[in-house]
Amino acid sequence: MFIRVQELLGSNWSLHDLRHTATYRMTSDPLVRLTDVQWVLAHKQLTTLQIYLTPDSDEIVGHMLAHHARQEKKATEQPRPPLPAPGYDPASMDVLFGRPNS
After folding, report:
1. SS3 category, 58
2. Cα–Cα distance measured from residue 62 to residue 76, given in angstroms and rounded to the nearest whole number
């Protein structure tokens, strides 16, 4: 059927082109493990998928911005350490535990 449609359309796509498209889509899905894609394609070496793992610049920048946003959120959500028990100098405790001065 695929070959008949190709002839009708006058296009030059092959079943192997569809395999490449499917591979690119599977490797782009963060929920699909690369080892699963390797198994589906019956590739002996995982490195054969390397050609499909070339994100564009916008994708990389987006991932890095999301990473920094997560780090910023994590830093602002961390609870303050408890105050020292009565009788202890807070500055001494900061030096002892390497915390910045309050």
Report:
1. helix
2. 21
